[in-house]
Amino acid sequence: MTGRDAGNICPLCGGALESGNATIPFILKESIVVVKQVPAHICVECREPFLAGRETDVITELLTQVKELSSEVTVLTFPEPAFA
Ligand SMILES: [Zn+2]
């Protein structure tokens, strides 16, 4: 296991990954944040989305901001790269 080739093969089921946009729910301590239009590699077999490091950084930043809203459910759209 190299763990370095996750860009092409799903680590969960071994299926192929294709680029696309995913809607991903994040469960925080007291709330749920749904982020739409997240650029991700999506498994064609199990539909699990995998994020690149840059997208993970942007989402981490988004979740930090949302925590301060203290809303139980928040739905966001992933920022365009120009605005990120
Ligand atoms: Zn899979």
Mean pLDDT: 86
How many helices in DSSP terms?
1
Profile the largest sheet.
Answer: 4 strands, mixed
CATH architecture of the domain at 21-77: Roll
Q: What is the number of strand segments?
A: 4
Structural class: alpha+beta
Q: What is the gyration radius calculated from CA atoms?
A: 14 Å
**Beta-strand level of the residues, as a percent range?**
35-45%
Shape: elongated
The molecules bound to the chains, other than polymers, are:
zinc ion
Work out the helicity level. Answer: 10-25%
What ranges have pLDDT less than 50 throughout 5 or more consecutive residues? none
CATH class of the domain at 21-77: Alpha Beta
CATH topology of the domain at 21-77: Ubiquitin-like (UB roll)
| Distance between the ends | 34 Å
What letter string, H or E per element, gives the SSE order? Answer: EEEHE
Would you mind describing this structure in some detail?
By secondary structure, this protein is an alpha+beta fold. The chain has a domain at 21-77: Ubiquitin-like (UB roll), CATH 3.10.20. 18% of the residues lie in helices and 36% in strands. It contains one helix and four strands; from the N terminus they run E-E-E-H-E. Strands 1, 2, 3 and 4 form a four-stranded mixed sheet that branches. A hairpin with a 4-residue loop joins strand 1 (17-27) and strand 2 (32-43). The mean pLDDT is 86. Bound molecules: zinc ion. Zinc ion is lined by residues 10, 12-13, 15, 43, 45-46, 48.
